[in-house]
Amino acid sequence: MLYFLQNFEIIPFIAFLVVAVLAFAYHEFGHAIVADRLGDMTPRRYGRITLNPFPHLSLMGMVMLVIFGFGWAVTPINPSQLRGNPRTSHAVVAIAGPASNFIMAVLFAIPLRLTLGGYGILISDMPSWLAQFLFVFLNIGVRLNLFLIAFNLLPIPPLDGFWVLRGILPVDLAYRLDGLRQYGTMIFIVVIFLLPYIGISVFPAMNEFATVMYNLLVNWSPL
After folding, report:
1. Is residue 61 part of a domain?
2. Could you tell me the CA-to-CA distances from 172 to 78, 91, 163, 165, 177 in Å, in that order?
3. Does residue 170 fall inside a structural domain?
4. Start-to-end CA span in the chain (Å)
């Protein structure tokens, strides 16, 4: 997935950064717009109800992305201001981020299918460097957004999957789950960074999900 970050190549690296900015920003925009529609004005007060990607980004998260290939962004919300059941409303806000990434994956996949279909429908008259950039850009656009869906749906606080799981569990189990929140950062570090060193990793499953979905969006044909 991030092979080109370990084996530096300028065109894939630039394409990755552009896609990552869009993927992170519109993931957060998904959270912001749904929270706003459900009555929480916090994202609006922070200027997050905008398609401009930059207000959604974290400077430190982007610096970490450039250096280590791992970044983040955060949307401020106040779950107590959401209409309806607080748990389920928060879950709806949480799932909106991965849903936004799925929409983006589809939007990248459509021109990529056209490009792969004849490898020239979109890029035949372009300079070779631009054609290469576009092809890599679209390919990374699909793969990264699909990977972010799998990553963010891990049921680990503070990832979206935790809030989705909390929203669909029975009340008693949901409140038991709340006990994990205080250990969220520690659990996250252990699962994402430490367990892979002893051969226990969630990344193969996430990559498999991204690969299967990529093939469905880009390569699958009903004929």
Report:
1. yes
2. 22, 16, 15, 13, 9
3. yes
4. 29
- Residue ranges making up the domain that contains 36: 8-219
Is the distance from CB of 11 to CB of 136 less than 8 angstroms? yes
Which of 122, 26, 7 has the alpha carbon at shortest distance from 69? 7
Residue 180 lies in a domain: yes
Residue-wise pLDDT tens digits, 22-80 = 999 999 999 999 999 999 999 999 999 999 999 999 888 888 887 777 788 899 999 99
On whether residue 52 sits in a domain, the answer given is yes
Q: What is the largest CA-CA distance in the chain?
A: 61
Residue showing tokens 């499953």: 205
pLDDT in tens, 210-222: 999 999 999 877 6
The count of structural domains within the chain is 1
Q: How far is CA 213 from the centre of its chain?
A: 14
DSSP-derived 3-state class of residue 91: helix
Share of the chain above pLDDT 70, in %: 91
* 163 close to 91: Cβ distance less than 8 angstroms: yes
Q: Which two tokens stand for residue 77?
A: 């919300």
Q: What number of other Cβ atoms are within 10 A of residue 100's Cβ?
A: 24
CB atoms within 10 A of CB 173: 12
The candidate with the shortest Cα–Cα distance to 25, out of 51, 60, 44, 2, is 51
